[in-house]
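Batch job 17 of 40 flagged for manual review because the log was empty.
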Amino acid sequence: MLGMWRGFRSSEEFNNFLANKPSLEEVLGHESITDEIYCGNQQLQDYMDSEKLSELIDLITVEPSPDAPHNRCYKFPYVASELISPDYGKMLDIFFENEDELLKKLFGFLDSEDINLLLSGYFVKALDSLLQRNPSKLLDFIFTEKYHKKLTKHLYSQSIADFLSKCLLSMPSEAHLSSRLDVLVELVTKINCTFNPAVSYNSQEVLCKVISDTNESGTHRALVEYLKTKDVMEVFFEHINESYPTYPWVARSVAKVLKALLSQEENTCNPNLEKISELLETFKSNVKVLVKSLKVPPSPDMTNRNKEVKPIFGEERVILSEITGLLCRSNYEDLLKQIADFKVVPHLTEEFFSHEWNTMLHNSYYTLAENILHNKNHDLKRSLLEEASLPSKLVHYGTNPCSDEEKPKRLGFMGHVHKLANLILKLEKNQPYIKEVLQKTQGWKEFTQNELKAVNEAENRHLGGKATLELMRGSSEEEGPTITLDYDRLLGKNKEPEEEEEDNDDFPDVGPELTAKDLEDLPNMFDSEQIQRDIYSATQCLNNANKDEFESMHFLENHYWKLPSKLEDLEELD
């Protein structure tokens, strides 16, 4: 924060004000107090002592009475939270003196059964500053004094949950590992909170941050490995089985944790799977739980602005479909056979075409189909191509892209229909089974040669055309290459000149059709500098291109170029 105010000097008037030893209330109410805090006023830091810090703690942890003045309710707590800043290191060191009396008073905020959410933000802001100043002492204090247990009682506060995740991940050593595992136990329990969705959501957020943390220390691995144990995984699946569809937020939170664990699992996409992980074994034994949740829609249905009743697929089922897609990346044959036997893929195929505007579902289904088609497992491919009849559905919707209504409209999943068709068409060349299925699919050949081909040509067409640049080598390497622009094509002038005009060195050759009106319509297409011989400084685009890119012409697509002409040379053009 101080970086914004480095050039700002503290006010002499404010320093004289502090010299008169005003009360803390007078200091916090001063009109220049926030400016002085941001510029790092040294005298303000010297003014603070243990007694005044205790008063600041009261301001950010004690809820004001209903008849309290306006400043006590709003301004003073905010200014106090700004003052307890990591930029005031000397002042923060006072918190760790006198047997941590100030820290104990600060954490007394957690003793209440129901804390104020606004004050919890100020409370955590102060803790973040202390954590930056002295992380080892603060974390030792929290875990030694068992304040981590009190933090888990207030997970309905997003601020408390964010700080709890920092407590779990800020210690690279093995210190307090058992206490941190106790926190994970509480989080696994509280994620099943059926009376407050915020508790379930915040528990999931903390767990996912622990799982996705890139720290490779032994402590981090120990935390993640605990979550992957069979006992914990069985608890997660039990939460989904018992909560859905009555408490969909619980299923949603647990599904996000399972997806994070599966994405982090190294064996998921290991082609030479020698040892099946405990995580995949647990998924194999609980495929039926995933299938049950995927097949039960949430309620109620949704009525859109056209007063049409539409079924809801639900975010939790989208995440479960993404989990299914991740599982289909593995080479664990028993797990893949379970997915095929439970008819998961045909069901998701039907859901894909039933929810025409659910892009999140369409994306997850495309990933699922892509993983299946790249997998060597024959049962999964048969489930997708034959049992789900995906090629036939692609042909049907590809040739009938509009809805059957009085006023037909294009179906929302058509972009994914074309992507899936192109994917299958690409893999057909190297996979005989796919080629065999496609040969039996009625209308596939006609669809790919007509509708799909037309769509691909339209999508691959270069919008705005392609600038014509000719690279001509100079007479020597020192001169470098020169560049010639086809101005007529840039300006859309494709007509042949009626007669060739005599060269005139006083005017640049800008094309016979160029008029003053053209220049008025294109004010930004002229540069004030002569064209450079060095290709790396000719234009901004050339500056960012290397020699190979320039010569291959790949980087030139869809760029508009300025004409390298001087405006003063064009003044006399009529």
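Reviewer: the log was empty due to a logging misconfiguration, but the result itself is present. The chain is about 55% helix and 0% strand. Unflagging and moving on to job 18.
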